[in-house]
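Researcher: I'd like a structural prediction for the single chain below. Treat it as a standalone chain; there are no partners to consider.
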Amino acid sequence: MRVDIETSSDRCAGETICDIYDMSKDPKNVHVATKVDIARFWDLMVSAAQKANSVSSMNKLNKK
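Model: Treating it as a single chain, here is the predicted structure.
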């Protein structure tokens, strides 16, 4: 899908514009998920958080 971020407008700067109707002549520039396996998504998120925690240098602070 073609997705752009508005950067030149005073009223909607930062707005994400997604060409969901495929009307833009500009080339597609991102893959957009339109369906999600919610249980699998959260399994992956929790797994990633646990992995990050297991290797974080923050866990070594203040240990005596």
